[in-house]
Amino acid sequence: MMRGAGRRRTSPDRERGVSKDILGEFEQMVLLAILRLEEAGSDDVYGVPIVEEIRARTGRSVSRASVYVTLRRLEKKGLVESWMSEPTPERGGKPKRCVSVEPGAVTLLRDQRAMMDALWDGLDPAPREA
Asked: What does the alpha-carbon distance between residue 69 and residue 7 come to, in Å, rounded to a whole number?
C-alpha cells in the first residue's frame, strides 16, 4: 500500500494552521481593537494605535511585529482589508498601511463570543491551587 494512501487531504491553509472558521485569542484582540478604534471615529486605523489599544485594554505587552503578522494573516483570511494612506509628515512622508474589519469578521467574532458564553454559562469554578 502506498504511504499516505486513503488519507484525506487538507487544504494548504489548514496545513499551515490558517483557518477561516476559528479565531485565535490574539486575532480576536486585534479585530476588537480595530473595531474600537473605528467606533471612536478613526478613519486611518493602523498598527501603532492597534498596539496601544490592546495594551490599554488588556495591560498585556504587545509588539508591533506581532500585530503586523496577525494583520497579514487576517487579511489572507478575508477578515480585514488594507490600503495605503496618503504620505504623512509625522512618518517622514511615508504612507501608513491602514486596515478595516470586513463584515464576515464581525459575524465570526460574535459566533465565537456566543460559543464561549455558552461554555461559561452557569459555570463559576473556584480557583485551584497549583
From this structure: 31
CB proximity list for 110: less than 8 A, separation 6 or greater: none
Question: What pLDDT band is residue 8 in, cutting at 50, 70 and 90?
Answer: very low
The mean pLDDT of the chain is 87
Residue 110 Cα to chain centre, angstroms: 13
Cell (9 digits) for 56: 490599554
Distance CA 56, CA 50 (A): 10
Q: Domains plus CATH for the chain? A: 20-119 (1.10.10.10)
Listed in sequence order, the residues at least 6 apart from 38 whose beta carbon sits closer than 8 Å to its beta carbon are 45, 100, 101
Cell 493602523, residue located: 46
pLDDT band at 9 (very low <50, low <70, confident <90, very high): very low
Burial class (CB in 10 A: 0-12, 13-18, 19+), 85: middle
